[in-house]
Amino acid sequence: MHGDxxxxxxxxxxxxxxxxxxxxxxxxxxxALASTTAAAQTTAITDCxxxxxxxxxxxxxxxxxxxxxxxxxTGELPAQYTGCHSxxxxxxxxxxxxxxxxxxxAGAAEKNSGQSSEEGSGQDCHFHAGVEHCVxxxxxxxxxxxxxTCTLTKRDYNVPLRIGTIFVILVTSAIAVFGPIxxxxxxxxxxxxxxxxxxxxxxxxxxxxxALVHLLTHAxxxxxxxxxxxxxxxxxxxxxxxxxxFVAFLVEYLGNRFTAARAAKIRSGNGHNAEEDQNLEGxxxxxxxxxxxxxxALGHHHQAVLGPDDKLGCxxxxxxxxxxxxxxxxxxxxxxxxxFITLFVVIIFHQMFEGLALGARIxxxxxxxxxxxxxxxxxxxxxxxxxAIGVGVLNRFNGNDRSTIIAIGTLDSLSAGILLWxxxxxxxxxxxxxxxLRESSFLRTTIALLSLMSGLALMGLLGKWA
Length: 466
Fold this sequence. Notes:
Distance between the termini: 60 Å
Radius of gyration: 30 Å
Oligomer: single chain
Largest sheet: 6 strands, antiparallel
Structural class: alpha+beta
Strand content: 5-15%
Helix content: 55-70%
């Protein structure tokens, strides 16, 4: 060394300058100096290997470098990356196919990880279906300047707290969904009275807001995740939701056709003459003039004879709810501790509102009480089951894994389409355009409208957090 300049002797005895050592200042500590010098001297990284699912390579100074690859590694890991260079303060190397990839010194990566954790660094971190999104002040969720990290994020989870909340969610869901059923079973409250009108219309708003604000929005976020890569078809989420609505329609339509044909066959088998069949047909038509034989007709008139397809329509509605309820359970458990309590409170209200919506429709079915209780039990259990699955995979679940994102986005989109069909066609449209609210009194119409708007607004508000 000559002062701050490093000199070496060549084989022929000549002296040559190797590098000049930057001056250590109060704003440039020795650790930062070492990291900067190492980065400047690293032009290639070799001996590439995996730590879990994250690729690491070794630099010329024997320091490990983490390769910040976007997406999930599907092919063989390259043996080396060459042509390393800098863009500002960031270091990049070239892949064998010529693509540029960002690399970070292992020590610096750990330091940055600690600083950008959910506890601080001024970033806004939140979760969508188990996927953590962190953006800096003033940045949009899709326009952050930092490279996406698609690897598993290790955290210390409060497992006893999560196990305890499983029972809280179970009790809340059970009270909400069983309440309307037990109320109609053990009290004289009419299913087409004002109280049930409020519950049903509030539930209609909840179902529609769940489909649009929660499920479809989350599905679009999933398919826009940078860890998937660029989708050539940008309308993936809405196209799958459209398919879900079509499936819901097809199930109800074919179910109606099947039950109508079966009823006609039973009548002919019992020896009804043509005149009796015509009278029965005319009676059915008069009953169905104001109340369609679908889920929307449930509970509007006590004297109306409800067919098996009403049960089918309600099952379609519950299927849409169950698809996303299991995802809700997993979402809650895998969220980081800093966001867990907030998300837990939101899910409590979500389950309460959705349980009331489903319970109100189940309670008006003209089926046995045991079948109603079985349907309600399925809803009460499905979210806790999802939470239990989440606890089981807590330290292995990677919400940024490509296959996981696609699976969650697809289920959310399908559920959105199913609930959109049930909410708009079977519930909203029929209650107001063809049901008993079509010609109800001004007071009852006003109460029903306010209830509908409340369901839309409150469930839409919850979309800010979940």
